[in-house]
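Data availability (excerpt). All sequences and predicted token strings are deposited with the supplementary files. A representative entry, 60S ribosomal protein L7-1, is shown inline so that the format can be inspected without opening the archive.
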Amino acid sequence: MAEEEPKLMAVEEPKGLDYIPEVILKKRKNRDELAFIRKKQLELGNFGKKKKKVADIKRPEDFVLEFRAKEVDLIRMKQRVKRPKSSPAPINSNLVFIIRIQGKNDMHPKTKKVLNSMQLRSTFTGVFAKATDGLFQKLLKVQPYVTYGYPSDKSVKDLIFKKGYTIIEGNPVPLTDNNIIEQALGEHGIFCIEDLVNEISRVGVHFREVMRFLGPLKLNKPEAGVLRGKKQVFSDGGDTGNREDKINDLIIKMN
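Structure token line:
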């Protein structure tokens, strides 16, 4: 009997990957992004929160860019402090007025901590401070987000009379009644708003108590063109840093 020839197993040829046109891949990406945004909108709606616009909802790549910006901010802060030319500016006045003009999501937490320590928690707020080497070192750390200078007596008076307030039981109360000032600062010889202005202007012995009494001044957003959004220092044509007595011009436009 003739031997049967062994049957050869058919070997299937490997199939290549299906070609997917680029147009379809883009459509899939857009569809996935829209699904992600819709999911966030539904989550916000279910919890009764204010609805956000599509542009306000962050995509994963937005978080990456924000993280990188914060790291760059920290590196630049360290570089500013270490530079030989970053020694504190000569003090031309005992009083400094500081305005926060920039800064949002691109700030490193350490930068935000310094701003918060000066009560500059939001843009277009201003505070008075005693001029010291320590203060100028702080300002150097947050230089891209603030501008400052030496306010005149008139600027101090105009700011306090128009924007001055204190916090009572968690609520801002304008300084329209001298009784409020007397109750809080009478023991220090400050009985009225004129006494308050005088103590700030001359940086008196009870300056610190006055600053604790006052809330950070909420200034008006300046008209277009006054601030150009440049983080370079004022002396180089930017918006930030020391304006010296030129701060009075900015105060007029924001008060």
